[in-house]
Amino acid sequence: MEDIYNFIENKLSEIEFGLKSTKNKTELIKSKNEYLDIKYLLEIYEKFDLKRKNIEEIISLPKTKTNTSEFRIMEDLDCEVREIWTEIDAGKEERLRLHSSDLIIKRK
Fold first, then answer.
1. Helix, strand, coil percentages in the chain from 3-state DSSP, rounded to 5
2. I need a surface site. Which of 2, 22, 57, 85 has the fewest CB within 10 A?
3. What is the domain partition of the chain in residue ranges?
4. What is the pTM of this model?
């Protein structure tokens, strides 16, 4: 993985040099942003161990019935009585709110 990071860093350095020495920066800025996106996704890949063998499915949430609706994730407490289900907070002060086109990664 270190080789990949080094490759990206080298490309970013080349782009930075090019940005200083050329007037037409549009394509270089586009390339820089793409490499930064790849670097960010690699960091997520490592942090959450998102190898193909660990992922069962990636789900894009459907459109909600109203523009202001949200999806919420509930813990069912191993019971079918919905009144006692609790909404997860995912370690944040606010409850987790998901929207249309948000992604859920289901692990194996």
1. 45, 15, 40
2. 2
3. 2-47, 53-107
4. 0.78
